[in-house]
Amino acid sequence: MQLSTDEKRAFVNALEQAKRTTHPDLVIATRHYSDIFGPDGNTVEFENITIYNYFVWSHYYSVSKTFLGAGQASFGGVDFSHEGPGFLTWHRYHLLQLEQDMQDMLLDPSFALPYWNFAIGGNTCDICTDDLMGARSSFDMNSLSPNSVFSQWRVICESVEDYDTLGTICNSTETSPIRRNPAGNVNRPMVQRLPEPQDVADCLQVNTFDTPPFYSTSSESFRNTVEGYSAPQGNYDPIVRSLHNLAHLFLNGTGGQTHLSPNDPIFVLLHTFTDAIFDEWLRRHGSDLAVYPEENAPIGHNRGYNMVPFWPPVTNAEMFVTAPENLGYSYEAEWPGTPFTMTEIITIAIVAALVTVALIFAATTCAVRARSHKMEGHQPLLGDQYQRYDDDKGQSVV
Ligand SMILES: [Cu+2]
């Protein structure tokens, strides 16, 4: 990310403003459908929510358990935004909505969300500085530095137990501070390092957008690979966490828990980069809708389905397009090079051999020609052969 000092400050200030500004258009439901008119049947259970907290809430809602009624255990088998082909299209719209809400808030249609290239390897969070997403507190490994405005942020949607047992829905109440301890999960060494640049290069080479069962167990699926349930080369491996998933888990705190993760604003930058990889894949492999599954994907993930809970309704298909041409934004990104395949190595070897032969031929010819010049003085009556050669070059030897 190449933001100037002023751009960093403007971005942080814009996020802070979004965290404090009530969403001008949308309210959230705080009760399920059966209770939506309140205990007296006449008080609608909706609340105002701030622009940034709405961004958090809509993500929480998309992964929350399904309430089956009083006295029944909630059903956790549905995830409208992860572990399926809609992962990329859902998060793309999620970001677009935040970006547009912030543009409206700032009265600046040119405002754009930046990205964080998280594929830098190592165990350092390079954007965890006080001029960006907040440094680590020197008092508590798991907290943000008091010099960062984000140390003042409080999370929403934390009381999952209540939602599941009482049948309530996350409301706009803010509770604890953001927790973050990059590379600090000592119990899970695999998530103590960020993805490598080569992982991005590898996943972009996975040709098929998604593969049956269109789930987190899909193999040779670009979507499952960039989401991070497969090895970066595409093969499914149940113990692997790579790319997007690895970047989340690396944060080790609020940003590493699916129902809470957008509460840590790093979520925005992590997902814009994931979206940039998605857009590069579309550019390289084409955005023909036929490669996006029309059916048999988990609920909400089929091509023509609306993405829950966005309003107004928008389908996965509408986001399966190249961004610069269809959505009006683009990423300034440089993609890591890929190692050569055997076919490419053979092609390069043949071309190199041909070039060498051509160079030897040219050098020999020049030598002969130089020799001919040298000898002309001594043998002006040499044969036609050399004269014709020199005539071709438009030179006269006589
Ligand atoms: Cu997510």
TrEMBL record:
Subcellular location: Melanosome membrane
Membrane topology, as annotated: Single-pass type I membrane protein
Pfam families named among the record's database cross-references: Tyrosinase
Annotated transmembrane regions: 345-368
Reactions mediated catalytically: 2 5,6-dihydroxyindole-2-carboxylate + O2 = 2 indole-5,6-quinone-2-carboxylate + 2 H2O
Keywords for this protein: Copper, Disulfide bond, Glycoprotein, Melanin biosynthesis, Membrane, Metal-binding, Monooxygenase, Oxidoreductase, Signal, Transmembrane, Transmembrane helix, Zinc
Family (UniProt): Belongs to the tyrosinase family.
Protein's name in the database: 5,6-dihydroxyindole-2-carboxylic acid oxidase
Organism: Ameca splendens
Gene that encodes the chain: TYRP1_1
